[in-house]
Each structure stands twice: as C-alpha cells, then as structure tokens.
Amino acid sequence: MPLKAFDDYAVEMDITHCGICGSDIHTIDSGWGPTDYPCVVGHEITGVCTRVGKKVKKVKVGDRIGVGAQSGSCLECENCKNGDENLCSKGMIPTYNGRWPNGDKSFGGYADKWRGHEHFVFKVPENMSNEIAATFFCAGVTTYSPLKRFGVKPGDKVGVIGIGGLGHYGLQWAKAMGASVVALSHSERKRADAKELGCDDYILTTDKKSMNEHSGTFTHILSTSFGSNFDWESYLGLLKTNGNFIIVGIPETPLTGIPAMMLAMHQISIVGSVIGSPAVIEDMLNFAAAHNVKPWISKYPMKEANEAVKAMREGKARYRFVLEN
C-alpha cells in the first residue's frame, strides 16, 4: 500500500513491532461502522526512524520511535490548541482507516514501513525495548489517560472490569497511582494473574454476596469490556457517591438499561475516554518507565499476522499479541 505523501513534517520508520488491538478486529469486521477497504490495521507501532522532513524537530534518523491510534489532527482548533488533539473538532486522523487532508489513505502497522506527522510520533524511552513499548501507544494510553484525568490517588479504590489487553494495563496503572485495586471478572480463571498484576482483591461478578459486600466502596470503575445484558445496577451499586464509571472498551451497540435515578441519587458519572493527547502519551511513557509498568506480551512474526488475529479472536491473548518484523 502507498505511504502518505512525504512533506516537511513527515516522519518515516522501518517498523520493528506492532501490537494487535481490539480496534483492529472491529475495523476488519466493519463493527464500528463501514471500513474504507483496502485497509491495513495496526496502531501500536514501534520502529526505527529512517527519514524526516526538513521541518521535523521532534525525532531524528536512527531514533527508536512509536506511534499510536492517532497520526494527525488539524492542530488549529480550540481542542488542538488546548492540548486535546485526540479530540480535534475537525476529526482526528486515525493511524489506519482514515484520510489525510490531501486525500491519501492512512495505513497502519501490520507492515514494514509507516509514515506520518511528527506531532504524533514519540521517542521510545531508553529503558524500554520496542516490543515492550508498542502496546503502550493504544492499550496503555487508553487506560492511563482517564485514570490520570479523574485523579486516581492513594486512598482511592479502583475496580477494573475485564482482565484483558486493556484491563491488565488498568490494574497496573491504578496500583502505581497508589490506589487499592480490585479485578472484576465473571470467572475464576484470571484470579492468579490479577494477583500477579498487583490486585488487592478479586470479585467474581456472578457472586451476588461478594458484589454486595463491596457495595458503595469504589471511587472509580474502569470498564474495558461489556458483556451482553450488562447489569448496570449491580456495577453502579459498587460506586461511592460522586464515583466515576469510565468506559474505555467501546461496544458496537448503544448502551441501554442505565438506571437514571441511581445516577442522580448517588451523583455517579458515566464517562467515556478515547486514547490520549500527545502530552498524555509522553507523560504515560515517563510514568511507565519510573514505575516499571509493563505489558504481558506474546510475539508472532509479522508474516503470521493472520494466525495472530485468529488467536486474538479466540481470546488467547495473555494479554497482548505483538507482531515482529
């Protein structure tokens, strides 16, 4: 597939690694809306910088670099100027399944080369390998950003629904921020993993007695997955007054059955969050390096991307697959 036109702000890299994200599957399947085929997915990309435009200042040839789910924005609207480029009011340019202003398509990281705008490219920290760094650029920032924004701190109690690619990051971030951390899972099979990831407790969500014992004790719940017939009342009942229910795992269908009176009487906020701004990504990389937050990954050769996607669909990731050139 052709790379975007090279310009003064372009950065090109030879891709070494690319994480497999749930977004890739949704996009392959047109689950979040019609996909603009042909499409090359992959937006947890690391590699080595091979070429830069003449106005690029952020990175240089030879640097180890990464890029996440966003490759461009207008950089001129109020949101962009306020440091919320991920919320660009003219629409962010996604790393794949998007269009650059000149009409070129954006193609992702299941490939050997990538090219994009310097503003959304980051140096990989010295103490982090490319394979470890890759999944921070989507799964990492998707979970870090809202926990930081909603002020998770020592003394808080954070629940994480879904111990997977996103959830295993969420548990580690909340723990590193000083909170008491609880995994919320519908089965027992991830209890040992949750403990190893730093959890203080583990709630089997099908056990009503256990759910009731924790009623009204959480300051934050990070939801990384939605099952069918999501029991809003049970989950929202876990939150303290003024608690935050944060949605980062985006279902393909609208939310239904939310008990409005419960929200009102407990002043509970249900909030969404999408990736993070470049400043938040820089902050996250520094925080991860300082607190030794690391994903659990398994690697596949890039040429076996189809097999890796199949394994991802079958729920075999523990907890992130990374493709390697």
UniProtKB/TrEMBL annotation:
Top-level lineage group: Eukaryota
Keyword Nucleus in record: no
InterPro entries membership: ADH-like_C, ADH-like_N, ADH_Zn_CS, CAD-like, ER, GroES-like_sf, NAD(P)-bd_dom_sf
Residues covered by the Enoyl reductase (ER) domain: 4-323
Pfam annotation, one family: ADH_zinc_N
Annotated keywords: Metal-binding, Oxidoreductase, Zinc
CDD domains recorded: CAD1 (cd05283)
Cofactor: Zn(2+)
The keyword Cell inner membrane appears for this protein: no
SMART domains: PKS_ER
Family assignment from sequence similarity: Belongs to the zinc-containing alcohol dehydrogenase family.
The protein's name: Chaperonin 10-like protein
Organism whose genome encodes this protein: Phycomyces blakesleeanus
